[in-house]
Give the backbone structure.
Amino acid sequence: MANEPMTALPDELHEQLQRETLVLLHTIDAKSGIPTSSAISWVKALDRETVRVALDRRSRLVANMKANPKVTLTVFGAGSVFAVNGNAVLAADEMEGVPFKLSCFDIRVEFVRDAMFYGARLSAEPAYEKIYNKAAAEKLDAQVFAAFEALPKKA
């Protein structure tokens, strides 16, 4: 990928964000003003300009994005590390059809840049496993992603 910032997700990232993937969400803490990072997996690209995320309503991330909508998503894929900068817009304070109180945000992509250091290529994407009840995890994931589809785009 070129080092010039892009104004939309490249095809490889858009495709990757159609399936469950590990992403880092960076916000500005509403209380301290300090940058924060959290790993999340309920993420989906609605199109090349919008990424949807779901978060526990009690999470500080929700308060952070309500106070300051500027966010960065770090996505590991397509042989590199990408920083996706954008503005978060509340799509649903509480998602329907999900057994937990989750908030949903649409992130309007402002620019994407290749953040991998010069002369390197990502040889493997980060992998994770869910360590609680696998069937319950799959059911919850299916409910969250179905709820994503039911919401209109806000960004």
The domain at 11-150 is CATH 2.30.110.10 (Pnp Oxidase; Chain A). The beta strands are 23-28, 35-40, 43-47, 50-56, 70-77, 80-92, 102-114. The longest strand covers residues 80-92. The chain has a mean pLDDT of 91.
